[in-house]
Each structure stands twice: as C-alpha cells, then as structure tokens.
Amino acid sequence: xxxxxxxxxxxxxxxxxxxxSIEVAEGSCVALVGANGAGKSTLVKALCGxxxxxxxxxxxxxxxxxxxxxxEIARRGISLCPEGRHLFSPLTVEENxxxxxxxxxxxxxxxxxxxxxxxxxxxxxxxxxxxxxxxQAGSLSGGEQQMLALGRMLMARPRLMILDEPSMGLAxxxxxxxxxxxxxLRATGMTILLSEQFAKSALLVSDRAYIxxxxxxxxxxxxxxxxxxxxVMEAYLG
Length: 238
What we know:
Number of helices: 11
Radius of gyration: 18 Å
Strand order of the largest sheet: 7-8-9-4-10-11
Largest sheet: 6 strands, mixed
Order of helices and strands: EEEEHEEHEHHHHHEHEHEEHH
C-alpha cells in the first residue's frame, strides 16, 4: 500500500531523513522504532505532505504522492494521529470528531446525521468519549485526549493510519490501554504505520519494524525477530 524509495527530508541544514526506504503492506502493522530525534516524526510528516521531501519517492497505491498538498493526501486515504495530539481545544469532543470526517461530509446539511454511524462506532470503541461528548477537548485528561485524537482520525475512514508517538506523555496504565486499542484495530485488518520510541510495545503489536537511527534505517525485519535481536535488546529493550 505504501512504499518509500530513498526518501530525504528535513527542515533546514542537514537532512533529518537520509535515504529511507520502507514498505507497508495492506492489512499489516509496521513500526518505526527509534529514540527521540532519530527522524521518525520528520519521516511521518513527509509521508503526509506536512513537509515536502527533498528527494526520493512516496508511493501510495502505486502512485507517487510527493508534491501533493496534505489535504489531497488525506483525501486519498492517509490519516495521521499526530505527536502531541493537536486537538481543537475550545471545541467539544463531538465537534473534534466531526472535523475528522470533514473531507467526506456534505458542504451543507446535517453533518451529525450524516456521520451518526461513525460517531456511534467511535463512542462504542471509547465509552469515555461518549460520556464527555459535549465537553471541551482541552479539559480532557491526557489519555482521553489521545483517545479523541485516535477517534478523530478514524472518522476519516482511512485506508492507512499513521500514529506518531501515541504513548507520549501518558501514564503506563494508559499506554497499555492505547496499545490495546491499536492491537484491536490491527485485528480488524486496518493498515497501520506506528512511530514509537517504546520499542517493546511497538514490536508486540506490529508485524514488521524498521529501526531508525540518525535519519537512516539500521535494521529491519519481522517484529518477532527484531525483539530477539541482541543489538535491539541492548539498545531499546533494556
């Protein structure tokens, strides 16, 4: 479904992503594992069109999407749950969810009625969001905000979900809950690209993984094999 070829990207000066080539097969969960500053978030932003790559290709469904605006990439089916969540804090939980579905809702008319089935699905998945549907997003706890960010992404009915550091800033018990949700989504056949610094959790829920250091892939393989790799165990699994 997704393939990059020798992708380079950065903000200024040297590239933060240096010739990375990865593949994400349809229906699989692939993890990008690396420490803070390894280049994972830069790679994710380049895939979504939030920054323009400096070289290489991003193939989605066999077509190169480099140079397309982020809005068009989203319409083609790539949805991002960003690092730090980036919710619309003054808006309610339900208004944030509806914004996730915006690209496929009618320009005029009853937005909530059109998206009612999707809202019901999200509320079943995250009951706490249903309880707080008319509460401002900025007043939610960190764990609830992460649930809302995931729900907003799912409202778009993506072909590919990209999760950037979903565990950031959460207590361990909430991290377990978020990864349980990711595992459930994987079980439904959703295609997922997971960027995560906590290697143990990422390798448990993914099929394949890429270990990234200083903007380059240094190891790749099945998650099960990488979890047993001595170098990975020493550097990332303690």
